[in-house]
Amino acid sequence: MLSSVNHRTYTRTNQLVMDGAIFAASFAAAYLIRFEGAPPWPATAQLLLWLPYLVAARLYVNWKLGIYRFIW
User: Burial level of 13, CB count in 10 A (0-12/13-18/19+)?
Assistant: First the structure.
């Protein structure tokens, strides 16, 4: 029973979603730390513009390197 729950929880799709969400959150946290909790609007706009591309690029590179072929 436990193995079937773990198998459904750790699918490749879930790995991609979790990896992308953790990367996006860490990148946003780095911006908050860099600007001491209040980034100016140009920096926020830059983050919102680039974040989807950075997440997609990271997931693509990890996919091509075979990171998602095994379970964490």
Answer: exposed
Residue 3: inside a domain: no
In terms of residue numbers, what domain contains 34? 11-69
State the amino acid at position 4 in one-letter form. Answer: S
SS3 (DSSP) at 6 = helix
Tell me the pLDDT tens digit for each residue of 4-46. 556 667 788 888 899 999 999 999 999 999 998 888 999 999 9
Q: Kindly give, in sequence order, each residue whose CB lies less than 8 Å from that of residue 59, ignoring residues fewer than 6 positions away.
A: 16, 19, 20
Beta-carbon contacts of residue 35 (< 8 Å; ≥ 6 apart): 43
